[in-house]
């Protein structure tokens, strides 16, 4: 089995997803961390990468030619993002709502009435995290421009930076909406980070549903495992989902998090634990 793509996701925010993703990336030799949480990328706060390259990401924006447009309204009807409205004089385009899917141009019956221009929606940043001894962790992040909605386009662009020679750790946006689905799609494995509460179980069920629909095998990391109830472990047992790592609440871990210090730096035992986690993923895929 070659280098894997491991998506780290969570049905809700605040479970420790980015903490797990960054520590997992740091624990593996020559891994690549890709922050697909493009609305609020914050993995860099723990990894402190040396950023070397920044590129912009654009999506196509439709432009209507008033000389050719008959105001039939088919484009506005087809647009599921409500980015178009037809007035008596022209078609209005709400650029921030447009995802650049191209459907309006496809359905327009008037040849040449819709053309496209490029619109910048965000950026990609790449760099490396240097370690003592010369080893490195690759780093990439997508960053959506303020007020933009083309999140999926940016996640796709971030995923294209994946280096096939390295183990890729994709930090997915929280929740189970399209950007999370786009992140998990095509991954070899999906790690779902949750907490042992009824809320954690509810959101985990939704996230498991997404992973299973996508055909991506999944396992669970149970954070603050000593603070809740058995809701999640009961569910995992019933669904034959492996709990690959349990993280107890500890003041030292909370302190490291608050200071932006990776756990594996704060306490070397965590390097071993995260390596064991990655081994458990490989064994789950081999089984
Ligand atoms: S490109 Fe897609 S999202 Fe944008 S206006 Fe056309 S149909 Fe709507
Ligand atoms: S579908 Fe084409 S012709 Fe009809 S309103 Fe839209 S741009 Fe105009």
Explained architecture:
This protein has 2 domains: 5-57 and 126-286, Rossmann fold (3-Layer(aba) Sandwich); 66-112, 2-Layer Sandwich (Alpha-Beta Plaits), CATH 3.30.70.20. It contains 11 helices and 11 strands. It has helices at 17-27, 44-47, 74-78, 103-107, 151-159, 178-184, 198-214, 231-239, 251-258, 263-266, 269-286; strands at 5-9, 32-35, 50-64, 84-86, 91-93, 114-130, 136-144, 168-171, 189-194, 218-223, 243-247. Strands 3-6-7-2-8-1-9-10-11 form a 9-stranded mixed sheet, sandwiched between helices. It has a two-stranded antiparallel sheet with strand order 4-5. It binds iron/sulfur cluster (2 copies). The site of one iron/sulfur cluster has 14 residues, from helix 3.
Give me the secondary-structure topology.
Elements: E1 5-9, H1 17-27, E2 32-35, H2 44-47, E3 50-64, H3 74-78, E4 84-86, E5 91-93, H4 103-107, E6 114-130, E7 136-144, H5 151-159, E8 168-171, H6 178-184, E9 189-194, H7 198-214, E10 218-223, H8 231-239, E11 243-247, H9 251-258, H10 263-266, H11 269-286
Parallel strand pairs: 1-8, 1-9, 2-7, 2-8, 9-10, 10-11
Antiparallel strand pairs: 3-6, 4-5, 6-7
Bound molecules: iron/sulfur cluster (2 copies).
């Amino acid at each position: 089995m070659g280098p894997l793509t491991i998506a780290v996701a969570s049905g809700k925010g605040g479970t420790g997803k980015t903490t797990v993703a960054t520590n997992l990336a740091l624990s593996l030799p020559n891994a690549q961390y890709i922050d697909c949480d493009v609305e609020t990328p914050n993995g860099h706060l723990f990894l402190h990468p040396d950023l070397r390259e920044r590129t912009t990401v654009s999506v196509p924006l439709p432009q209507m030619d008033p000389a050719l447009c008959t105001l039939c309204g088919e484009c506005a009807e087809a647009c599921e993002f409500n980015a178009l409205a037809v007035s008596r004089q022209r078609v209005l385009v709400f650029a921030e709502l447009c995802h650049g899917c191209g459907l309006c141009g496809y359905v327009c019956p008037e040849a040449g009435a819709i053309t496209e221009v490029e619109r910048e929606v965000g950026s990609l940043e790449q760099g490396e995290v240097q370690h003592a001894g010369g080893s490195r962790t690759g780093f990439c992040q997508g960053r959506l421009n303020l007020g933009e909605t083309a999140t999926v386009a940016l996640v796709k662009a971030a995923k294209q930076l994946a280096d096939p020679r390295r183990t890729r750790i994709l930090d997915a946006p929280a929740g189970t909406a399209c950007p999370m689905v786009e992140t998990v799609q095509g991954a070899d494995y999906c790690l779902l980070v949750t907490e042992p509460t009824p809320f954690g179980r509810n959101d985990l069920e939704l996230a498991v549903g997404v992973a299973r629909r996508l055909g991506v095998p999944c396992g669970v990391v149970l954070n603050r495992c000593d603070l809740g109830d058995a809701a999640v472990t009961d569910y995992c047992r019933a669904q034959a989902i492996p709990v690959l790592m349990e993280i107890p609440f500890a003041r030292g871990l909370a302190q490291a998090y608050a200071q932006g210090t990776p756990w594996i730096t704060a306490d070397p035992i965590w390097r071993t634990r995260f390596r064991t986690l990655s081994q458990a993923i490989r064994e789950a895929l081999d089984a």
